[in-house]
Amino acid sequence: MNKKDIESRRTFAIISHPDAGKTTMTEKLLYFGGAIRDAGTVKGKKTGKFATSDWMEIEKQRGISVTSSVMQFDYDGKRVNILDTPGHEDFSEDTYRTLMAVDAAVMMVDSAKGIEPQTIKLFQVCRMRGIPIFTFMNKMDRQGLEPLELMENLEEVLEIESYAMNWPIGMGKEFAGVIDRYNNRIERARAEENERFIALNEDGEPEVHDAFMDTSYYEQAMEDVMLLNEAGNEFDPERVAKGELTPVFFGSALANFGVQTFLETFLQFAPPPQPRELKSEEMKDPMDDDFSGFIFKIQANMDPRHRDRIAFVRIVSGQFERGMSVHVPRLNKNIKLAQTTQFLADDRETVDTALPGDIIGLYDTGNFQIGDTIIGGKGNYEFAPLPQFTPELFVKVSAKNVMKSKQFHKGIMQLVQEGAIQYYKTLYTEEVMLGAVGQLQFEVFEHRMRNEYNVEVQMQPIGSKVTRWIENEEDVTEAMTGPRSMLVKDRYDNLVFLFENEFALRWFNDKYPDIRLYGLL
Ligand code: GDP
Which of 34, 102, 143, 162 has the most Cβ atoms closer than 10 angstroms to its Cβ? Predict the structure, then answer.
């Protein structure tokens, strides 16, 4: 195993609110990596190119596919793994868990909108992990918020410090390019390749004059940069690595402006595969010889004729080789990994070897659970568990046919254990409730109950809630509960409040300051 090969790997996810430009950015990156010939291919998959695929119906309808959930390419001597974080209706706990498997994140921001809700949630998961976050302020070819305003918005909403790697000159129709602070040059928009860059001298003055430099927005940009030089944060790679400082790049994914510079700088500062914490609190080092990895996602096949599933493994250490036997400590069982798959942009391919930072897919007939450790060498250790995420959506669920109640409970328990959905129940009547972070999880649940357990379920939506666990359960009284502060139990019989909304939570906090509430991530 070659140390350099491991060090050259960069595994990251792009986080954003829907429509900020994640897909467009991904396409451009794949294009630079030579993984696709035409930018536009990734989107194409959404329009049904997958008709021949035997993947699940929902998958086809929604255009999610295993192939696009992990993409790999080479650039500049680096092996790049991009993990997709499905958003919108496809948002689920898997989206969060994917962030457990990366070493860095790229945050796409729509410059006309600033930081949006879904970005905040995903950012918080990255923050909790302390991974570096690189910001791309997208759509500079459109009129958006003023750049200083965007930086302020970023720092305020996310409570992170920022460093502008470049600064836009104009915006929308007047967008002339950026002052590239990091590389000491101007990068011009709409310029021929050989005229794209204008070097800056020691005083920060351009060495070549161009018409756009006579405009007021150029003057403004130069002024802003001076202000940033004097009063802004310093660029500090160590703070970037800890996730305390986010480098900010202005550009346009659609116009393909600033993407390549971004990619190159990102690959330079994004970390190689990182060590990972074990249950014992020791760290597992990527350079260790013995193979280890953990499962962060399981994708069930929704086609009833195909029961197989794919378990996604992030490799932490050692080398994976096809056909190798691994130990699964939770099951205390050895399993031979014969059928594996690697992810490329254009197709699924059988993988023979893979290294730390890589993601492999294991065909699974029901052995694995999310969070499972798999190890190749001797020893018997497990990785620290993946966090549980605070659900926001709830339904009451029951079997349509009461005669199927045994199958119903068996199915639920298995799907809950697998990590597909969260289990709750009402207090006295013990009606079964399910919690999720995204609607998709309920749909997948319903589908799998029908196809794998032969049970039709009926679900009664309870809507979105603010979920809080309770430190001092013994102090909770009946009087504190009501329609706006419903009390339920989780699968471990812990009491949980489901508040109508943030307002109801605040009201409760004011009224019962002695009850100590907390959310999971
Ligand atoms: P996603 O939902 O985050 O994957 O966003 P998409 O990549 O699908 O982009 C959403 C919309 O914004 C599409 O219509 C894109 O063409 C458009 N878009 C993406 N990047 C840019 C950009 O840099 N400038 C402009 N004007 N539009 C963009």
Answer: 102
